## 1
Amino acid sequence: KLGELFDVQLQEDGKAYYVLDLTPKQEGNIQRIELKVSKNQYMVEQVKTIDGFGNEVELRFHGVKTNGKVPSSSFSFEVPSGAQVLQADGP
């Protein structure tokens, strides 16, 4: 679905990476996004965003683990006192 929001150009960065150059189809704060994807596992290893002023923000991902086991206790949620819980079909 990237093609719905961005003009996409595929490039290669040596033998190990693909680079997706994404240019938004609609004007906004982002001028361009570059995704660096490993060829062997198709994992995003770097994201670079360039805003309308030419500022660049680069994020690099290392040691990413996929399909790891996460205990269900990590997802416990307690409603804070005084908060109202809304259900998808209403309060």
Note: The first helix runs from residue 2 to 5.
## 2
Amino acid sequence: MSEQPRRQVPRLTPRQMEVLEGVLAGLESKEIAPLLGVSEQSIKEHISTLLQKFDVPNRAALAEAASRLDFTGSLDIERTWVRQFMREAQLQICVLRGPELRYATVNEAFRHAVADRPVIGRTMREAFPELVGQGVFERVERVYATGEPSIVSEQPVRWDRGAGVEDRRVTLVLQPLRDDDGAVNGVISFGIDVTELPRP
């Protein structure tokens, strides 16, 4: 079987990047034009060039390819793989938003680990009262406050997985998330329950 040719990341001018951001935001050409202080025709020409550079047939495909590139840094990543990075990953992944650290989204592995406990829109402290005093909240809050990632291996944690509070061991990677200006506005957590794994 022949190897798939690698797709090069298109080299974009600063103006093309601005137009692409408008497309990603779902704006029409006539909406992007006044934001950039150019004519609608100029925006259409930029979009035509972007379609050629990304080798896609229309704006929808352009937005999808650009989103994939923005998320993964590559155009070689298949569209079907992207959902596997988070939604279908075996790691327990959750995204917490704002200084109060409210759950914005969780993946299926996280949902399963907490027995489908409703967490979206709740703070960590509201969703997991049994974690008080175990240092978990403080660790996540520190990542948000300092903007420094944190890795903890095999942390003992007691939480309810649906059959009452249990002793577990969890390895966590906590990564700050930043807005367009570089300010921390969330935290993403990657966790794996290593309780059942043999210790070295």
Note: The longest helix spans residues 40-54.
## 3
Amino acid sequence: MIDCMIIGDSIAVGTQMFWKECALYGKGGINSWQWNQMWQVLSEDANTAIISLGTNDHIGVNTRAELEKARSKIRARRVFWLLPYGNNPASKVTIQEIQKIVRDVAALNSDTIIEMTSMQSDKIHPSWEGYKRIVDQAKN
């Protein structure tokens, strides 16, 4: 069993920069469907998992189904979901819709939500301080 894994998109990549010991299953710019295609199976169990998916989803992605599929692959004692703060308006899906789905999937699995604060000017990615807060919350 590994101590931690971080799963998802560019926010996951940024989070792993502040918790380097964690295994990273992520890539910048991907949506939840792409993540499920790239990581068909996760072979490791973890004490802690952090998930950042949904921010890059668009009208063509069934976000609920993809997040449920991703979550079913994760075996961890504690699972944290990063609640997306913003997304690209061209996605034709509001951030509120994505946030509701993330909250629903987390609740179905008794997982914990981490709300992102201290954002960069793009209102999508956390600032360095924001990333530190994410890691601090997941470690405690």
Note: The chain has a mean pLDDT of 97.
